[in-house]
Amino acid sequence: FRILVADDCSTDRSREIVAAYDLAHPGVITVLASESNQKLFRNVRRAYALTDTPYFCVLDPDDYWTDERHLDKAVGFLEAHPEFTIYSAGIERLEPDGRRTDCAFAARETDSDFDDYLAGRAVVAFTQTCVYRNVVFANGLPAKVKDPPYPSMERTLRGDSFRNFLHLREGKAHYSPGIEACYRITDEGVYQGVGEFERKVMNARFFADMWRYDDERHVELLACSQRLYALARAEAMRELARPDLPEKKLRALAAEMADLERLYADGRKALDAHLLRTLPFRQRLRYRGYLKLRHK
User: Fold this and answer.
1) Could you write out the DSSP letters of every residue in 116-163?
2) Residue pair 214/221 in contact by the 8 Å Cβ criterion
3) Under 8 Å CB-to-CB from 210, ≥6 apart: which residues?
4) Contact status, residue 284 vs residue 230, Cβ threshold 8 Å
5) β-pairing, 110-112 with 64-65?
6) How far, in Å, CA of 9 to CA of 32, rounded?
7) How many CA atoms lie less than 13 Å away from 111 in the CB half-sphere?
8) Which whole-number Å values give the CA distances from 229 to 91, 120, 207, 214, 224, in the listed order?
9) Helix (H) and strand (E) counts for the chain?
10) What is this structure's pTM?
């Protein structure tokens, strides 16, 4: 096995600690150092560029595995089932106050494919237990990861949702309900460090960007983005008027929401066709009537 440590100019002695492990286990650890902070996407991308092993996983610095056989289980399953590209399992949440809660994403072993993902029913756990068959990065970075065509993609391509999306396009995901890792909840994380409203906007942006990443082939992704955006929009007036919201963040959120609305307007025809295919019969008739009125 091989360990890549992408150190983005940390100030907490991480590099010194890793150097000590490297001396104790020579030839196993590769440190990707940085003299200036590159932000999360660029830091992770340089690790992807060196990921050439048959399988890989990502572990954030504040999380850890609790099952010593986690990697054995994951690789063993993927070796025995070549049609699968993801293995994941249950996690334990460690709250800031020290409380621990088991978190199972399904009550039993569950397999999912890309159709399940598009329908919103795929079961894949968080980063801590996901192990991937390396079918995406083994031959180098995909062009849109190497050079994201939209500025927002530097945010959407940095996390686990993006990895799940790419690998479910290439195979199936297996979920095991046993607890195999700890997810440490903090107030400073990219996702946990923001409020519910901002998370909804982030999630809407993610699915909109995946629609564009996939060359607009699956309108289900844009429809999912629009549903999530509607939840955020219902709270927008209250949230954007908060007196404690910094002006810089206010402007960024307002710009993000305006850009998403432009995207939905541009994809209106595809979204209408999707709704007409998927709505129940009576709702479909009402929606047809609404479209006629709108076109007039």
Assistant:
1) HHHTT------GGG-EEE-SSSTT---HHHHS-SSTTHHHHTSSHHHH
2) yes
3) 156, 162, 165, 221
4) no
5) unpaired
6) 10
7) 8
8) 28, 15, 10, 20, 9
9) 12, 9
10) 0.88
Alpha-carbon distance of 113 to 236, in angstroms, equals: 34
- What is the pLDDT at residue 296? 46
**Residue 61 corresponds to which amino acid?**
P
Task: HSE, CB side, 13 Å, CA atoms: give it for residue 60.
Answer: 20
pLDDT tens readout for residues 156-215: 998 889 999 999 999 999 999 999 999 998 877 667 767 889 999 999 999 999 999 999
The answer for residues whose C-beta is within 8 angstroms of residue 124's C-beta and 6 or more apart is 86, 88, 105, 112, 130, 164, 168, 173, 175
Do the beta carbons of residue 206 and residue 221 sit within 8 Å?
no
- Looking at residue 273, its pLDDT comes to 75
Strand 29-32 relative to strand 100-103, pairing: unpaired
CA distance 86 to 67: 18
